Amino acid sequence: MVRFINGSHLSQFMTLHSAAVYFDDLQRPSGYVLGTDSNYKVKESDTLETLASGNTQKAFIGKNHIGLVSGEFKLESSDFLSNVSGLSAFFEDIEDGSNFSDVDLLRRSSYRLLVAKRSDDAINLFSISNIGRESGQEHIAISLHQIIKRDHNTNKKNQLIWYSPCMPGYLVLGSDVPFSFDKAVDFNTKLLSQIPPNILEVVGNDYEPGPTHLYNVGFDGIRKIN
Q1: CA triple 224-108-5, angle to 5 deg
Q2: What is the rounded radius of gyration, in angstroms, for the C-alpha atoms of the chain?
Q3: Under DSSP, is residue 5 helix (H, G, I), strand (E, B) or coil?
Q4: What pLDDT score was predicted for residue 85?
C-alpha cells in the first residue's frame, strides 16, 4: 500500500514492486516487464481519518520513462493521480547519479521509486529513494541494470528479476533460463499477487495487494499490459 498523507509522514512502505528482463526469439535481452500492486490509502495528517482508499495505478509515465512509486507522500490534496502523475516532468533526462532533491513532492516525503528509461540504443533501470540510503545518497538515481540493443549476451547478468516486497530496497533474483515476454509477465504477476509471510507479519495480516498493474518497457516504447 502507498499511503498518501496531507501533513506529517508515517513510516510504512507497503507496496510491492517487481521488474524482470525478457528476451526475444533470438534469445537477446529486449526489455523489462515492471509491476506494482495497487492498494492505497489517503489519510488526514492530524486525525488519521481515511479520506480515500482503494486500488489505483501507482505509476507516472512520460514519453520515454516510467516510474513506480512507493512510500509516504505529503500531498497538497487527496487526489492521488494528480499529485503523482506530475512527477513525470522531472525524469525524462534521468541518468546514473541524477539528483532529485529539488523535487518538492519528493523532498517532503518518504519514498522509493523504480524508474525505467528507454532510448533507441539502451534501456536503463534506476532506483531513487530517501530511505535506507547512506548519507549523501538520498534522492540520487542509482543504476540497477542496462539493456543494450542487439546485445546477444544471454548469460546470467541479464537473467535477472528485481523484487521489493514492502521494503525499502530491492532483492535481486536470478533465473536459470532467459524469460520470454509471456514468462516475465506470468512471473511478475505471481510475485505481486501475495506477500511473503514474514513480511506480512510486519505490514499486517489484513493487507491485500489488490489487482496487479504491469508495464512493458521496450525499445519500441512503453505500454501498460493490464
Answers
A1: 70
A2: 17
A3: strand
A4: 83
**Backbone torsion region of residue 192, taken as left when φ is above 0, otherwise alpha when ψ lies between -120 and 50, otherwise beta:** alpha
Place of cell 535477472: 160
| Rounded distance between C-alpha atoms, residue 63 and residue 75, angstroms | 24
Which residue is it, cell 523484487? 163
Percent of the chain predicted with pLDDT > 90: 42
How confident is the model over 67-91, as pLDDT tens digits?
999 888 877 766 666 778 889 999 9
The strand pairing partners of 213, in sequence order, are 36
**Pairing state between β 39-44 and 2-6:** parallel
Structural domains in the chain? Answer: 2-224 (3.60.20)
Q: How many of the other CB atoms lie within 10 Å of CB of 46?
A: 9
Across 4-23, average pLDDT? 65
Q: What is the pLDDT of residues 16-57, one digit of tens each?
A: 899 999 998 877 888 999 999 888 777 777 777 777 777 888
Long-range contacts, stretch 180-183, CB < 8 angstroms, 24+ apart: 180/22, 180/23, 181/22, 181/30, 181/31, 181/33, 181/216, 183/22
